[in-house]
Known about the structure:
Number of helices: 3
Largest sheet: 7 strands, antiparallel
Order of helices and strands: EEHEEEEEHEEEEEEHEE
Number of domains: 1
Oligomer: single chain
CATH architecture: Sandwich
Structural class: alpha+beta
Pfam family, one: 2OG-FeII_Oxy_2
Bound molecules: 2-oxoglutaric acid, fe (ii) ion
CATH topology: Jelly Rolls
Distance between the termini: 43 Å
Domain Fe2OG dioxygenase: 105-203
Radius of gyration: 16 Å
Organism: Psychromonas marina
Protein name: Alkylated DNA repair protein
Amino acid sequence: MTLSLFEDELPIELINSDGMITCWQLLLPDQEATALFEELLNVNNWQQETITLYGKRLLQPRLTAWYGEYGVSADGGYEKLVQTVDFTPRLMVLKTEIERLTGYHFNCVLANLYRDGQDSVGYHADDEKILGINPVIASYSLGATRRFLLKHNSDKLQKVACELQHNSLILMHGALQHYWQHSIPKTQRSVAPRINLTFRLIKPH
Length: 205
Ligand SMILES: O=C(O)CCC(=O)C(=O)O
Ligand SMILES: [Fe+2]
């Protein structure tokens, strides 16, 4: 008999109309999650990418790094494939566990490092053509808890807020990216660093 390292917890549905968000808590054994956080925090492949908004080149208010088969430049219309770094053994364990839990396959990860409360990501949808028609994105959090906000594109009354905790996973799937936008807002609270790993399947055409 093989014993699983991971305890299966029933997932929670955060959104189930116009797309879906499914959430799992405590994904990895505690020491594994802490070791992965420290490993990622201490590597030196973090970059501060630029993004062009209304014709102006701005620095993104967070650091990013791509792992896996492909990466996509934020300032290249999200189409350009950039060189990436191989999955580390710890990232591989996490990817395998996420694939087992969700039943989906992923070939790359965009890692985001929010250094403090001033780092953020504005409202957006992960709807780049390169991710296919209904992108499936598994988003795993490590480190400080940050607030995740969602708003519906046409029904302004529909808003969802959720605290993304260390060692938790959300799966964005179905038509979600067509109907909802998501963000991590800045906070005046003093917060420690947070790393978010967004597992994606890039299908170059
Ligand atoms: O940090 C997060 O939880 C969200 C990151 C995100 O939305 C993205 O990388 O597209
Ligand atoms: Fe996103």
